[in-house]
Fold this sequence. Notes:
alpha+beta, L-fuculose-1-phosphate Aldolase, 7-stranded mixed beta sheet, binds 5-O-phosphono-D-xylulose
Amino acid sequence: MTAYTAQTVLTELPPAVQDAVAATRARVAALHAELPANGLVVWTAGNVSERVPGADLFVIKPSGVSYAELAPELMVVCTLEGDKIADGTPDALSPSSDTAAHAYVYRHMAEVGGVVHTHSSYATAWSARREPIPCVLTMIADEFGGDIPIGPFALIGDDSIGRGIVDTLRATGGRAVLMANHGPFTVGPDGHAAVKAAVMVEEVARTVHLARELGPLVAIDAADIAALNDRYQNVYGQR
Ligand SMILES: O=C(CO)[C@@H](O)[C@H](O)COP(=O)(O)O
């Protein structure tokens, strides 16, 4: 595959790649609207990215721009090293401050096509306690196949967050991690699936918190968790 760099010019790429980038930008812009719509973010505090099909590139929002302004043409195109290419947006328009973390995930998890990060309230509260969300709901078994784990504490700015996400997801086999004292990161085969996982993380974080207020939690047997997850991933919905 082509080696893309910060010097890559989008308009000089093959038409098929430009078309794939345009379609990805449209999807990522629309998916960002799902974050406020589902109550997952305040102000600009969350981001969605998606891998460009057929190219070692991904699309992510610009940093600190309000969700209402996130039109497809403002979505930033990055290499898998996290460098912005000459994508037609102003040079001063920086990609999300979490770009390095998203890029690390794409470089190390070929099966991942979408990444989402939010600071949604209940999930982030569990992050603040560095406490995994136990698999005590069928919804958790369905979507996550087990407890939602805690990742390490990591500072923003280098590969630390990405490494923490990948190491934790590899160890647990899930699609969500609560980074310690930070918040949830979710992944999926595409951006839509990663956004869905972010919505589900927040919902189960809230429900399990409420359940715990009522009394002790009751575990689900491991075999039942596996059966629920298999049915949901392979039978549920439209095939
Ligand atoms: O946690 C942080 C920054 O500390 C980020 O997740 C922001 O909350 C969203 O940043 P941008 O995507 O707008 O750069």
